[in-house]
Amino acid sequence: MALRATLLLAFLGLSPSPVVSIAVLPVVGSHRFDVATTSASLTDSGRLDPFANDGRVRSIMVSGFYPVPACHHERLKPYMPPATTTFQDDKFAAYGLPNGSFQSLYLETCNGSANRSLCSSSSLPLVLFSGALGTSRLLYNSMLQSVAAAGYLVISIDHPYDADIVEFPNGTIITGAEISSDAEVKLALTTRTEDIAFLHRQIANASITDKLFPGHLHGHRVPKTAIVGHSLGGAAAAATMLQVPSIRGGLNLDGTMFGPVLTAGLDRPFMLMGHENKTQETDPSWKAIWPQLRGWKKEFEVRGTAHYSFSDLPLITSVLDLQNKLQPEIEQVLGTVEGRRMMKLTVTYVTAFLDMVLKSGSEVMLIGGNGEFPEVAEVA
């Protein structure tokens, strides 16, 4: 795809003047496909929402990303829906992002419905993704688009009351609850695990998969699946693997671990990737789970990074030409690695792990470090 990053509003179907500058977040890594995106609301009618306190059943929002072998209908899609965009603009103004930053962001995607007949790739493996506490799933859109472009079906999940904001198609908006105590974090983790397990069961439902991946999955076969999580999502990845044995591997991006998995362990591949100074020596939960990981395992530390380096935020600040213009304190959140490079680093290691678990079975890309990224140190 080669659409320009500055377009007339008329091109977007809006008023023909004035000219609006927009920022298109690029697909990075060794991608082979264009990508179409979808979203849907899923309701677990058999489970009450433990955070709602009004007897409602649990509903979640998900986004789907799927490869398109030959895209003939490209489009620019807003990075976030309107209410979420406004919320994030207000939230990140405290870090120095100019007003309207998120409003200017777009993804360059394929119009999947227009390419439906070209999208049949039922053998593609599936990746589930859960993000950080107090963070929208949409702040990982660009990263997950790049993962899908490497040949994966991807679903990201918003966990209402846990995420800072969840915007549903019917206009319902749920903002985040105050989750800080050990009991509240435990409840959030349990709820996330149940959300992900519910979503995984729905992959056998043709009406659901046709919404998320039109033309890709047929019948009731669930594809080979792995799970990736950032922060609390990394803990949820491990917890879900303990509950769902068919998930073949998991990757924890910078997440402290909680729950029964610390003692029960896992017998399938699991990888830990932490920001600078987050290792087994500094995180007791990583030290506790390491000997309980009985399958393939690896631990990496990424120098020059901070907790939210493993999200779209560094790329966003780079694309908006803001990375060296924000408050100095932003380095404590995003690290110092240039945004495009950080995104490529993350996608390279995530897809190398997924390729090993779901495709080739080879760990060659994960042994001895990757010469392209000297920031990455193999810890164990």
Structure description:
It is a single chain. This protein has a single domain, classed as Rossmann fold, CATH 3.40.50.1820. It is built from 10 helices and 16 strands. A 9-stranded mixed beta sheet has the order 4-5-9-8-12-13-14-15-16, with helices on both faces. The protein has a 3-stranded mixed beta sheet with strand order 3-7-6. A two-stranded antiparallel sheet has the order 1-2. Helix 3 crosses helix 5. The chain is globular, with a radius of gyration of 20 Å.
Short synopsis of the structure:
Helix content is 27%, strand content 23%.
Write the layout of secondary structure elements.
Layout: E1 6-8, E2 19-21, E3 23-25, E4 34-48, E5 57-68, E6 74-78, H1 82-92, E7 105-110, E8 126-130, H2 141-149, E9 153-158, E10 165-167, E11 173-175, H3 182-202, H4 206-212, E12 225-230, H5 232-243, E13 250-253, H6 261-264, E14 270-275, H7 284-289, E15 297-302, H8 313-319, H9 331-334, H10 339-359, E16 376-378
Parallel strand pairs: 3-7, 8-9, 8-12, 12-13, 13-14, 14-15
Antiparallel strand pairs: 1-2, 4-5, 5-9, 6-7, 10-11, 15-16
